[in-house]
Amino acid sequence: MFAAQHRLGNLVAIVDANGQQALGRTRDILDLSPLGDRWRAFGWDVHDVDGHDVEALTGTLNGFDVVNGLPHVVVARTTFGKGVSFMERRVAWHYWPMSDEQYVLALRELETTR
User: What is the domain range of residue 87?
Assistant: First the structure.
């Protein structure tokens, strides 16, 4: 509210909206939807973006009026563990450590998806 009241257009928040947290899915633990509307209610300029699309993210960030506007929030919709078969969308990987073998496997999978 302070940021909107003082028109801090140079303030940018990026929210990684992957739908998960350490204890489970956010919709089951603390439902944040509709996330964009919540930020708007506090006076922020809201942008919903595919968090895996670098061009969309940079285009959005570069388009902000950082001098005369409202503070901005980018709700980056992401898939937790994207690109790693044994991690993708699995809540446990928010807190489980990787073994050395899993680390190597994860890197290998990510390199093949580039």
Answer: 83-114
How far apart (Å, rounded) are the C-alpha atoms in residues 65 and 8?
10
pLDDT in tens, 64-102: 999 888 999 999 999 999 999 999 999 888 888 999 999
Number of domains in the chain: 2
Angle 19-22-46 from CA coordinates, rounded to 5°: 35
pTM over 0.85? The answer is yes
- The pair of structure tokens assigned to 78 is 């992401």
Tell me the β-bridge partners of 20.
25
Q: From residue 21, how far is each of 16, 27, 29, 32, 85 by CA, in Å?
A: 11, 10, 8, 12, 19
Largest Cα separation within the chain, whole Å, is: 51
| Cβ neighbours for 3, distance < 8 A, ≥ 6 positions apart | 11, 43, 44, 70, 71
Indicate whether 88 and 74 sit together in one domain: no
66 with 34, same domain: the answer is: yes
